[in-house]
Amino acid sequence: MTRSYRGWLILLMCLATMSGCAAPLNRAAVEPGLIMDDPEIDPAELLDQLVKAHNAERTEAELSSIALDKKLCAAAQRQAEDMAAQNKMDHQGSDGSNLPDRVKDAGYSYKRCGENIAWGQKSVEQVVEVWMKSPPHKKNILGEFTQMGAARAFSKDGTPYWCVVFATPLRK
């Protein structure tokens, strides 16, 4: 088993047991050689750090906390992996999908959704700082959302690609 697939399996096991936010394994979507893990940080810890960082910004703005959702994590993981495989930061997937497509494909029904993407930042602190300095990204972090999903994937050259999906579920 290659490092990328072994790392991906470890990621899924950690996420499933610690956060309940794992996407189904789809090896066809993982390009051979794509690095999915980082030995420096546990994947579940990374998700926890992302949620805490977003909630710290929301608390400072006197907004309610945002909760992690496993379906939104699946949508975020799909986009982070796709961007890393393509070495391209884009809200449109290489398959032509957009954010609403990916959220619906993950089985999430929403009233509103938003997405923040980034590449190159080495830590949660760095990526959230970049987003908070960008008015459209800051608007998502401080937006009228109640749930989020997050992911990070690495390209072949080790560049991190980040994706956070925000949403408010549709209540029936």
The share of residues in helices is 40-55%
Tell me the number of helical segments per DSSP (H or I, 4 or more residues long): 6
Catalogue the unreliable spans.
1-37
Structural class: alpha+beta
Order of helices and strands: HHEHHEHHEE
Radius of gyration: 15 Å
Task: Give the number of DSSP strands.
Answer: 4
The largest beta-sheet arranges its strands as: 1-3-4-2
What average pLDDT do the residues reach? 81
Plain-language structure description:
By secondary structure, the chain is of the alpha+beta class. 44% of the residues lie in helices and 17% in strands. The chain contains six helices and four strands, in the order ααβααβααββ. It has helices at 3-19, 43-60, 70-86, 99-105, 124-132, 135-141, and strands at 67-68, 110-119, 147-154, 160-169. Strands 1-3-4-2 form a four-stranded mixed beta sheet, with helices on both faces. α3 (70-86) packs across α4 (99-105). The longest helix has 18 residues, at 43-60. It is globular and about 40 Å long. Mean pLDDT is 81; it is low at 1-37.
What are the salient characteristics of this protein?
single chain, 172 residues, alpha+beta, 4-stranded mixed beta sheet, 4 strands, 44% helix, globular, disordered N terminus
Write the layout of secondary structure elements.
Elements: H1 3-19, H2 43-60, E1 67-68, H3 70-86, H4 99-105, E2 110-119, H5 124-132, H6 135-141, E3 147-154, E4 160-169
Helix pairs in contact: 1-2, 3-4
